[in-house]
Design goal:
- It contains 9 helices and no strands.
- By secondary structure, it is mostly helical.
- The chain has 2 domains: 35 residues; 149 residues, Lysozyme (Orthogonal Bundle).
- Helix 6 packs across helix 7.
- The longest helix has 21 residues.
- It holds the Pfam family SLT.
- Belongs to the transglycosylase Slt family.
- One of its GO terms (molecular function) is peptidoglycan lytic transglycosylase activity.
Length: 188
């Protein structure tokens, strides 16, 4: 059995009171908006409109990839806000006909968001499903194509019943959660 001493009881009552006040005043939504911000929204909205991608989806990806830090480099070498690998960056640059492209441009928030949003559109055109797009963004489009062909991972060849890479599975669930939260907080 669990017993609280006087100090513990006071702390518990105080914490409960704070939670109730936050809930009653709507302050909890303010706190959640601080955790799920709309950073770089001018770029996100611009390129989301251009490439016809839900801006809240872009925010959800950025939140999971870099937590909005433009200078982040992953252990696999992915760069910037949307964690684009140099190889993918060069491919996107060639598709978008960016003649003077170099990998350091991925540290620039506008360039990174533009390229990442274009890539989400490209994956959306191929897969047409948010979950598949997220899995391909993280685990690679070739892997998702193979998983869809394998009855072990996809019964119908159009949806993934399970994702064999644990990291990609966790990432996909995190982005879906982020996306749901962004839509709940900001969609009108």
């Amino acid at each position: 059995m669990f017993f609280l001493n006087k100090k513990g009881l006071i702390i518990l009552i105080f914490a409960f009171t704070v939670i109730v006040i936050l809930a009653l005043t709507g302050a909890s939504k303010i706190i959640v908006k601080h955790i799920y911000p709309l950073k770089y929204k001018e770029y996100v909205y611009t390129y989301s409109m251009e490439y016809k991608i839900d801006p809240f989806f872009v925010f959800a990806i950025m939140k999971a990839e870099s937590n909005f830090r433009p200078d982040v480099v992953s252990r696999k070498g992915a760069i910037g806000l949307m964690q684009i690998t140099p190889e993918t960056g060069r491919w996107i640059a060639s598709e978008l006909k960016i003649a003077d492209y170099n990998d350091n441009m991925l540290f620039d928030p506008e360039t990174n968001i533009m390229m990442g949003t274009w890539y989400l559109r490209n994956l959306s055109d191929e897969f047409g499903d948010v979950k598949l797009v997220i899995a391909a963004y993280n685990g690679g489009r070739g892997n998702v194509e193979e998983w869809l062909k394998n009855k072990k991972y996809s019964k119908d060849g159009r949806n993934l019943d399970n994702i064999p890479y644990l990291e990609t599975d966790i990432y996909t669930q995190r982005v879906l959660k982020n996306y749901k939260i962004y839509r709940a907080l900001y969609a009108k």
